[in-house]
From TrEMBL:
It comes from Desulfitobacterium dichloroeliminans (strain LMG P-21439 / DCA1). Residues 209-459 form the Transposase IS4-like domain. The lineage of its organism: Bacteria, Bacillati, Bacillota, Clostridia, Eubacteriales. GO terms for biological process: DNA transposition. This is Transposase. It comes from the Bacteria. One of its GO terms (molecular function) is transposase activity.
């Protein structure tokens, strides 16, 4: 259908123009136009009647109704809204706002620096980037308090975190405990490394060492973390990049006893922490411990494994037995599924060894750490060391713990298994929170950056636990993705500004419920 003007002429030659609604049709192979209705003379319709008619007809058109409404509507911007609402509530629930406000008041620092810390933690949790990147990223997030932040606020905030690391950790710990729950029972410890990019200069922390990032070509720092039984980070320590795990463990545990005023605690550490110095320190500090033993490096390892005590089933894939030797208490743990895998791997190595020896590839064997421990090399020949293969078979699927606690055997084994929580936390720290690589080039900035990641990790782990308490069917990553789709849109309607929230569905709604936050009104006046 279309509109057309039909012109007619009076006897005096003057024109009469009529507005018609017509339709084109094909009849007998020819296109013909049919008048559907006459709307009247154009002159009569131009006094406003035509405008009224068009508006009336527009009500029956979805598209034109929107176009008509949009004449008075202007959308200024759309920004992420969900994460800032949810994580700000969690930030306050954890007491971080209170803790920082007190420290800032004591040091007479501006509120902007405190807000900069929250801004950077929020960035770590959603879209990790550099401090320069955060300065730009904040403009895509709706939180009015972020608008005044400048780049220098972020760097001042990093310096503040470095200067007040210990105080923040202690206040955060005591905020969530009272006189009845302040006593730690189990503390897990582990270490990792992270390297520094660029020309970092020379200072005490940066050293070449054993890189757990597989980057021996980079200067690095070591990070040790202490975590409670429920998986919440308590404190972290930054060491020079060449610090042995044992030294890091000794310093961290000594510091733990002093700072948190603990009377009884069981320290759990992996096999890298085990050593004579470690045991002496723990005994001196009157601390109980559960430590992994390097089975193949301990003379009594085979004797402990071969002891006749029977195994007790703890779980489907874990059996344990207790052995006392030389006054020391050992717990032998057996994973039968892992034993089968260890046996299969060793048998493959033996097959490869025989094949290479038959073809005279002795140089390949000597240079391979996987093979050389199972061969004997003389000037004349190389042979398989059957005794070492036999000894290795003793340890299939096994690990040994040494402890001075009075805990039941099963609890000792279970406590050590829980060490995976801190290992997972380190994976989160270095991947989800993007700890590595570090681009800061001064000690205080590197340490401040790591403290920032520590706070973000506390937030992430606590949030994950809250989601589990809500029996959420959604994982952490899925919830974050859903939250980021919740936007605030600033619109102007007839010179009146409004904030319109996009819909909150599924995983995003669970996030608000988990932290106890109310979903804001859909439309708010600015």
């Amino acid at each position: 259908m279309f509109a057309r003007i039909k012109t007619a002429y009076n006897r005096d030659g003057s024109e009469r123009r009529y507005l018609q609604i017509c339709e084109s049709r094909r009849e007998e192979g020819k296109v013909r136009q049919k008048v559907l209705c006459n709307l009247g003379r154009v002159e009569d319709l131009q006094n406003g009647k035509l405008d009224d008619l068009i508006r009336s007809l527009a009500k029956f058109s979805d598209k034109l109704a929107v176009v008509d409404a949009a004449e008075d509507l202007f959308a200024d911007w759309s920004k992420e809204y969900g994460p800032s609402l949810v994580f700000r509530r969690l930030w306050e629930n954890l007491g971080l706002h209170e803790i920082l406000a007190q420290l800032f008041c004591e040091r007479e620092l501006s509120v902007d620096v405190q807000e900069a810390i929250f801004c950077m933690v929020l960035n770590r949790l959603t879209e990790p980037t550099s401090k320069l990147g955060v300065s730009d990223w904040k403009d895509s997030v709706h939180r009015p308090e972020l608008e005044s932040l400048k780049l220098h606020h972020f760097y001042r905030a990093i310096d503040f975190l470095d200067e007040n690391k210990e105080m923040i950790e202690e206040k955060l710990f005591y905020h969530h405990t009272d006189l009845f729950t302040r006593q730690l029972d189990l503390v897990f410890f582990d270490t990792t490394s992270t390297y520094v990019e660029g020309d970092a200069g020379a200072f005490d922390l940066l050293e070449y060492g054993h890189s757990k990032d597989h980057r021996p070509d980079r200067l690095q720092v070591m990070i040790g973390m202490l975590m409670s039984r429920d998986g919440i980070p308590i404190a972290h320590h930054v060491f020079p990049g060449n610090t042995p795990d044992t030294d890091a463990f000794i310093e961290a545990v000594s510091d733990l006893k002093k700072r948190f005023n603990i009377q009884r605690v069981i320290v759990v550490g992996d096999r890298g922490m085990m050593g004579k110095r470690t045991l002496e320190l723990l005994e001196k500090l009157n601390l109980q411990y559960i430590l992994g033993v390097r089975m193949r490096n301990v003379k009594v390892g085979p004797e402990i494994v071969a002891s006749p005590e029977p195994y007790t089933l703890v779980k489907d894939n874990l059996k344990v037995k207790e052995v006392t030797l030389g006054g020391d208490r050992y717990i032998v743990c057996l994973n039968e599924e892992e034993a089968k895998r260890d046996q299969a791997v060793r048998e493959k190595i033996e097959i490869k060894l025989r094949s290479k020896l038959e073809h005279g590839n002795i140089k390949d064997l000597i240079g391979n750490s996987e093979y050389k421990k199972y061969i004997n090399v003389t000037q004349d020949a190389a042979t398989i060391n059957k005794e070492k293969l036999k000894q290795a078979a003793l340890f299939d699927g096994l690990y040994i713990l040494q402890t001075n606690t009075q805990l039941p055997t099963e609890e000792v084994a279970t406590a050590y298994r829980d060490l995976w929580q801190i290992e997972r936390a380190f994976r989160n720290l270095k991947s989800t929170l993007d700890l590595r690589p570090v681009y800061h080039w001064t000690e205080r900035r590197i340490c401040g950056h790591i403290m920032l990641c520590f706070l973000a990790l506390v937030m992430q782990i606590k949030f994950q636990k809250l989601l589990m308490n809500c029996e959420s069917e959604y994982g952490y990553t899925e919830v974050i993705r859903a939250l980021r789709k919740v936007h605030a849109v600033k619109i102007k309607v007839k010179d009146q500004e409004h904030l319109v929230r996009t819909e909150v569905h599924g995983a995003a709604a669970i996030a608000f419920k988990a932290v106890g936050a109310r979903i804001p009104e859909r439309v708010q006046k600015v």
